[in-house]
Amino acid sequence: MPFSLQFNYPIFSTSCSHQLKLHNSIRNQPFKFLCTSPQSEEAAKDSSGYEKENGNGHVILVEKYRNGTSKRYIIDNDSEIKMFLEEHVPATTGSQHLEIPVTELSWLPKVIKDFVLPAGFPDTVTDDYLDYMLLQFPTNVTGWICHTLVTSSLLKAVGVGSFSGTSAAASAAASAAAIRWVSKDGIGAVGRFFIGGRFGNLFDDDPKQWRLYADFIGSAGSIFDLCTPLYPSYFLPLASLGNLAKAVARGLKDPSFRVIQNHFAIAGNLGDVAAKEEVWEVAAELVGLALGILALDTPGISKSYPTLALTWLSVRILHLWFRYQSLSVLQFNTINLKRARILVNSHVLHCTVPGIDECNRMESILLWQRFLRPRIIFEVSLEDMLDRGKYKSMIKQLLNLYKEEKYFLVVNQQKPRDFEVFVSFKEGATSLSVLRSVWQTYWLYQNWGWSDNIFDRLEQSLVELKHRFPDLLQQLIEAGWDTNNLSLKVPKEMSIEELPAL
């Protein structure tokens, strides 16, 4: 059965001219949320038939979510706004605008699909991707079976049991040792499995950051290995934790470095670049192994655990410093969110943009996006946007304000001391829409406070955006930035479809 929640909020009567003003006349109109239970088809029909029963109302926008849920906002001539929540959108609806396309592998649960397939599949990969991965899976399974068998042979070769001349107990002990050793590797593989499935869509945006984080996590894993002589009875759990941490680090390192390699291969020679990188890495490995062996031959290190641990710590810190320096010299000409913030802020304040070298030096490798200011929160429901401010019922004004943009942007009024904006994207939004929203955010951030009228500020920021954004693009092109391949992804968990007014 359908159920409804009714809240009474004031709706302001407005008139829009070149400068958007708020009238003092206030009319108390109810703001309704009508939710339907997905367990009843009749309830769904009742909700979808609301417009037919109320001829003076019409849908103004639809929020669509990847899990199939949708929210429809309906407004009538009395400025009464109702929101219908449908947890499972029917296959056929009364309007073609509400149809959600069926993707490939619809039989596969969404959680699994998001975990094992790239974001946006199948549109973001080639047609042969799935066939290749389905054949790669049994290929890797057979490879690891061989690895397990070979590991058992290696352990027997170094004295842990043998194929002949030993008792059944000794053979069983040798097999148990091999199983424990392989189990250690298996626990580590779980880390790579989790990283690849959960965070696979992050590496393209900020490979520098994730490559550095990989070394920090790998260092933590080495600490567990270093503690095994102190607690030999806990060798398996310590070694497993160490392997887990290092596997997580590898899960971060490999995809991040592939992005970096792709950055190097400007002539389409990715294979050659990867092969030569392997030469450099093997040469460094041989030198490092030689120096490590010399260090182990030193009596002070080989006979003193504290000296060994201190030496490891000193070399590891040096390793992390070199890693940071190597990432700092990278000069990406693509624009991700961090670099977009630097470029946009410079353009808003000084009407200029830094060059590729300067901007990459200014980019913070360690800092997370959530700690950057001003804070930008993407994919916020229109309902949450409006409930957080004093203009909860000004939906029509918001729609009119952003009718020429592919997104909605409002400032969070609940945190006056901590500037924060909410952004949601309409259907058809592109990476350029993300860049436009970032520019508007920084203009508001730098000019906040010149007016007490919130909509005056938003409208003025859009006027500035319209006049100054073309200059930003022109300066980016002249500075050598790749504006045709922006690394600014439009969030896909939610999109807003704006319907034409009747």
TrEMBL record:
UniProt feature coiled coil, ranges: none
InterPro entries named among the record's database cross-references: RUS_fam (IPR006968), UVB_sens_RUS_dom (IPR054549)
Name of a matching Pfam family: UVB_sens_prot
Superkingdom of origin: Eukaryota
Similarity annotation: Belongs to the RUS1 family.
PANTHER family xrefs: PROTEIN ROOT UVB SENSITIVE 5 (PTHR12770:SF27), RUS1 FAMILY PROTEIN C16ORF58 (PTHR12770)
Protein name as annotated: Protein root UVB sensitive 5 isoform X2
Gene, per the UniProt record: LOC107798679
